[in-house]
Structures are given as structure tokens and as C-alpha cells.
TrEMBL record:
GO molecular function annotation: glutathione transferase activity
Protein name: Hematopoietic prostaglandin D synthase
Source organism phylogeny: Eukaryota, Metazoa, Ecdysozoa, Tardigrada, Eutardigrada
Chain ranges of the GST N-terminal domain: 44-116
Domain GST C-terminal: 118-246
GO biological process per UniProt: glutathione metabolic process
SUPFAM superfamilies (UniProt xref): GST C-terminal domain-like, Thioredoxin-like
Source organism of the structure: Hypsibius exemplaris (Freshwater tardigrade)
Gene3D superfamilies per record: 1.20.1050.10, Glutaredoxin
Amino acid sequence: MAAMLVFVVADGATDEPGTRLASKQIENLSTGSSLTVDAEDEESKYIFHHFNARFRGESCRWALAYAGVQWEDQRASLALFPTLGSTLPVLEVNGKNLTQSTAIARYIAKKRGFAGRGLWEQAEVDALIDYIVIDAIAGLRAYPEAALTGDKAKVTALKEQYTSVGVTPFLKELENKLRSNDGGQGFFFGPSATLADIIVVNFGDEVLRMKPDVLESYPVLREHRNRVHDLPGITEWIANRPDTLL
């Protein structure tokens, strides 16, 4: 069964790219997926609340798209970031709210069967996710605020420092880690994609927005990125998502 995605930009949102997509419906042709489906999901309503931005929340959107569930993408204007920054993202499921982007993404992956096969692999997946969201992204903590305040000098300095020096050890480690499974011809763990693959590639995409050639010396990561982009649901999401500042 095809899933339906609805973009909804909150009243008063002024971020132009998102406003253009208000109330637009996009059919996600992700049929044929081998992901787990349970009876509860047939009745569940997923609403993802985040800013009109990618950054922390985009991996959750990729997970929802790959899961093939019916969901809504509710976006608040970035102008509200100073007051709402610590409260979003939120995943609303049948009236219950779940916070924190990594917890949200893990919940979706566990529900739909791409959190890892068995307890050991799930722990390995979680370890790699933590490596990204705790360690690798640490050097970018100041970037969103600098971009939102229009501090161009600080934005440029942060980009140059991170893409030329800060991210290098993480990319090397990820390249080696990927090679350790099937010579880097597939995914990080086992024969199929897990949430770790989604979060690693989403992280890489954000760095590529800062420096388009940052993966030039990492051919295995480049090919892996293509494989994840080609996953059902994610392909359609990337093609139709709004262009945003962050």
C-alpha cells in the first residue's frame, strides 16, 4: 500500500521554500518494501513537528519516508527557533508525543524493522548512530545559530574549519567501518539498510551542503550515499522536499 505524505506549514510561517509547499500532497511510491508492518501501523497517524529546516530533524523524515507509513510533515517557521528550539522535533503518534530526534528515529526503525537484526546488531547500530549525533556533529553545534542570526563571517569560519579539519577523522573512520562489511559494497551492518545508514548519509549530506567536494577522497562513502538515496521512500522524499536555509 502506498503511503501518503502531506506537507503542512504552520500558520504564520514565513520561510519561503516551505510556504510554497503548504498543503501539497506527495505520493510516496514505496511499495514492495520488505520492512516489517504491524496491525497497529494500519491505524496509526504519524505527525512530525519540526522547523522548516533539515538539520536535526531530517533523519526522522528520512526514517518515516523509508518506513512507508502515512505521515504529515508539520513545519514551524525558523523565526520561532529562539523560543521553540529546545522543544522540537516532536513525533505525534495517535495523540501521544515523543521528543528528541534520535529517539524518534529509533522508534520508527524499531517499529518497521530496520533497527538491526538481533540485539547485538541493534547495539552496533546504536553505537554508530551515537558516534554521529554525539561526536561527529559536535563541531557544528554553533552553526545553526550563526546562520539564523546572519553572522556571515562566523558561518564562513565554521564551515571552513569543520569541512577542512573537523570532519576528516570522522569520514576516515566511517569509510573504514563501511569497508569492514562486505568490502563496503552494501551497508554498514548486514545485507540491508538500517537506521545507521540513514543517519550517516543524512549527516554527510549536511556537510556536503557546506562543501560539495568533501567526499572526494572517500569513494566507498560516495557509493554508499547513492545506495541510501536510492532506497524506496527516501528517493521520493529527497526529490520533493523543500529547499531550506538549514
